[in-house]
Amino acid sequence: MLSRSQHSPTNSENSTSIHSNILREIDNDDPFRKYEVVQVLGEGSMGAVFKVQIRKSQVGGSAFRPRKQKGLMKLFRFLKHDKHSVQPLHVSEHTDDFLYGMKRIMLDRISPAFIEELKNEIDILRNLDHPNIVRPHEVYTQKKQIYLVMDLCAGGDLYTRSPYTEKQAGRITTSILQAIRYMHNHGVVHRDLKYENIMFESTAQDAAIKIIDFGLSKKFIGKTGTMTERVGTIYTMSPQVLLGNYSAEADLWAVGVIAFMMCSSVKPFYDKRRSVLIDQIMRCKYSFESPVWSNVSEDAKDFISKLIVVDPKERLDAAQALGHKWIVNRERLPDEMPSEEVLSKVDGSLLNYRHTSRLKKLALTVIAHRSTTAEMQKLRSIFQEFDKTQDGVLSFDEFRQALEKMNYPEDTLAEIFDSVDLNQNGHIMWTEFLAATIEAHGHIGEDRIAEAFDRIDADDSGYISRQNLKDFLGDQCTKEQVDEMMTSADIDKDGKISYKEFLEAFRNQMHLAVEKVALDGGSIHASKTR
Predict the structure, then answer these.
(1) Which end of the chain is more exposed for a tag (fewer CB within 10 A), N or C?
(2) Of the listed 192, 387, 391, 447, which one is catalytic?
(3) Over the chain, what is the mean pLDDT?
(4) Could you tell me which PROSITE patterns the record lists for this protein (predicted)?
(5) Which residues are annotated as a binding site for ATP?
């Protein structure tokens, strides 16, 4: 394993990992057996976008309804009263946990190039893990259609809340830059940043934003090279994109355009005639002379002018933009500052996590990936408080600094850090942090544990097999790790883990971890967790 100082985030994505394997790919199945449409969000000739929720009868999937058992096998199992069977759970009336966005694409109505864009989006999203980037959950592939199930961004795009105050513009711009810095560090250029591709995750006034639509994005390894495809949406395209010779700095031009629009409610470049619009962009012809700019700070105008600049060498990169005084000195809103109560609960959860079994960590990772907006809101503020470099991952130094006031010994800090770093790639990713701290938010219902079981049981057999574990863990998996997980949960030693065994292992681990921390003389906060 690379030391923490040697680790390179860009190269870590070359192998399959737990995180990249969370996205479930299903062939020749009907997604509407599992999901029901709540609302049609958009419809066109090439497809549609729906707001969907998991049907109550389908929550938990193979935990209760092994789909590959047919006819006589189902009847036999019912009559036998299989010792592994569990009565279907009562699903809460609060269905926010199971609401998603679903994109349907009609393959026979789109060009091969568009199909490639869709495949590219799926491939890129499976490897991105950031609080302000939309998460994919499932892909259903049929002969004539593809369905992509993703986070539901219920608050609409940037247009829906215009106009913005400068304070709001600063907050949103910061989140966009944090996501872009993470993307660029991990070898991805978005190439189509615009108002329409920045969505609010909920209808709440203080809702966070998420970047969507990675169909035109580009992956690179190491230092970004030159790109030549003239792709994107013209009002946020840089002169270099129009010329067909550009690099990652094109995303920062787009951020400048977006910040200009939020501060003024107009575009920096606009004309109904495409040729005139292109000429404006090429000559970087925009100004702050409109009366609206009299109410905008000089810092904001300076920030924009350092992004909407023709020479990409003079343009700020994402890290430099995050260090600009307009961003650094902006007034933070209350929801961006975590409370001491939440911080103390997170401290306890992190301590408990040291003594959590690998199987439960796997389950918590799935639960974290499908976490609710309410859960993410508080934990995201803490993650970003820990992330001093704003690069979307936590280094050991950042982690040590964040927990400095707890006065833990260095070896305890290293133990906590390594226990959270489930991918063992030298840094803590967003979903890993969520998995380690999500129990600080409150009790995890059985319906969500059952959903985690169903995801790991990828072949819908009704059991978790050794092969299921190997497939889910990815390239980092060792035989010893699989043996450890099977031994810890396979009570009847039949070589597979039933849902009942999985549930017992999950719940028992919760109590054992708390008891262990208390015996170790850990933080007082830890003994107060469930």
Answers:
(1) N
(2) 192
(3) 87
(4) EF_HAND_1, EF_HAND_2, PROTEIN_KINASE_ATP, PROTEIN_KINASE_DOM, PROTEIN_KINASE_ST
(5) 68
